[in-house]
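Exam revision sheet. Question 4 asks you to relate a sequence to its structure. Input first:
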Amino acid sequence: MEHLGDPEVLSSAVNDVVLGYLRDLSAHSDVAEALLEAVAPLGDVQSYCPDLSQYRYVAVATRGVVFGFAVGMATVGFRLSPEFKLRALATGAEDLVQAGPEWVGIELFRNDWPDPDLKFWALRAYVYARE
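Answer key, structure tokens:
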């Protein structure tokens, strides 16, 4: 995986809403690590963070399309096809329409819920971004 700095290079119609949502957010290092571990097996992935030293958000992209991000103390977001978004919502994901109509948030570290399969959701988001 290629680690890049400023996500503004991703500015495009498909990414503008999610980048606007992320602009002022931060991410705990455990959440960022969970996202990066989930996308590690995938092929052409670039990671972006505006400022690692300040624990800013982390976004991942392929072919110039942001398909995942880490924010806050426990949220990993993925951009999913309508079919997989419905599945994610049915299995405990949160609808993150403020990031765009295709986005869901998956909460990590929940005591009352099974650990989410981030590798599965990362692959679904990656494939959707490459279509």
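Marking note for examiners. The first strand starts at residue 2 and ends at 4.
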